[in-house]
Write a structure and sequence with these properties.
The structure is a homotetramer.
Chain A: E1 2-9, H1 24-40, H2 45-50, E2 57-64, E3 73-80, E4 88-95, E5 101-109, E6 111-112, E7 118-119, H3 123-130
Antiparallel strand pairs in A: 1-3, 2-5, 3-4, 4-5, 6-7
Chain lengths: ~130, ~130, ~130, ~130
Amino acid sequence: MIQYETRFNVRYAETDQMKFVHHSNYIVWFEMGRIGLMDSAGISYAGLEKQGYLMPVLEVGARYLRPARFGDELTMKTILPQAPGAKIKFEYQIFNAKEDLLCTGFSLHSFMNRNDRAIKPPKEFLLKFKEYF
Amino acid sequence: MIQYETRFNVRYAETDQMKFVHHSNYIVWFEMGRIGLMDSAGISYAGLEKQGYLMPVLEVGARYLRPARFGDELTMKTILPQAPGAKIKFEYQIFNAKEDLLCTGFSLHSFMNRNDRAIKPPKEFLLKFKEYF
Amino acid sequence: MIQYETRFNVRYAETDQMKFVHHSNYIVWFEMGRIGLMDSAGISYAGLEKQGYLMPVLEVGARYLRPARFGDELTMKTILPQAPGAKIKFEYQIFNAKEDLLCTGFSLHSFMNRNDRAIKPPKEFLLKFKEYF
Amino acid sequence: MIQYETRFNVRYAETDQMKFVHHSNYIVWFEMGRIGLMDSAGISYAGLEKQGYLMPVLEVGARYLRPARFGDELTMKTILPQAPGAKIKFEYQIFNAKEDLLCTGFSLHSFMNRNDRAIKPPKEFLLKFKEYF
């Protein structure tokens, strides 16, 4: 298992007229989390794309337990529960400063090339993560 | 079952550097679909909010089958599979102009008042939908 | 002068906790307007990009006169005041259903290739627009 | 003059298919900058809203000099060039890690209450800023 923490503040533009964060923004935050986790493991997602590897989202899910509000300082835990294979799953937990759990979620990914064809994950990607499992 | 169709074009701003629509936008589109479905059944979500009823998202999920691209004319089917009770579930299917299924998803909701307390759905809301089931 | 009208409804996700539309969304709407105007003149912006022409934004400005709210049916007038040359300027006016003017704005553009180099507008682009002036 | 610096990384979701940041996101960043500047001067914008003061945007403008890209570490300078009166103007400059200037902009604001009526800025707001000029 690899775990990575991202800290960030809720942006005003992320709220909606319900007066808390619009639920679609958590999906954007999840992305920040997995990119951060990969980075912490020595894998630059920007670098992968430059080599022609894209990692699209196959599936995403989120459960909203409590609202996040403008100005909240949030902590997101991103977890890679298993060594990645053809598919890669990330899990997410978002907490406020009082350590209330606000949201849990996951995303599922695979690799694709610039011609929209499914391809195997880059070897370097698999090797880097193998060390952790 | 109630079914409602929304037609719309992909906005340029909804793409990302993968050259297709960023996955978080589908979650925004789902919202357009359920608001349209409610409207078609005679329920104004804007009106509900004015009366103090909020319908937050408890859960959301999406599976991405094929990418949507800038300029694509999309059709979203929003489905209310069951008469709403304390919880309300919507399902979504998004198709391109060739009728390829691009994405399926769901969202789960309940009602809340302006003080963040869970409340029963408004009677009018339940009655309007009862006619269809 | 070319003028083009776009009609659309405010999305819930476009509001913020001030209870009206977040000002950044008007900038996204302007883009829908100019793409629609080009389309109406026989120019597909998606097509231009496929040929390697990008039309980045050099400058943008907006004045907000009255707020737009969730559910509002808006009409945007996009205006090309002059035949495009090396630079292309669009102007925008957004009205609600009561024809109140909510926002005016403009954007300034030029052409660029995939290597980030400034290039002349495609001939076809200039010719199509010449007819109108 | 007050000056405040915000550092942040470009999010993947902020890019578009032109392969750099969509221009509307800079407008969202400007907002982060002015909220940070107010915070640094002892004024919580969240607190102002709780007291019934809203600070809507009257006008916004941006000039895009060079593109920002995914993963770029950006620095935004937010400047309050003059003591705020009935209107408040902020200026913005965004730099990449090489200190290239990517974007300049401004926003103009006034105060409003929850009934959409123009009101004077809160005294505390004016006093806090007076110290700096």
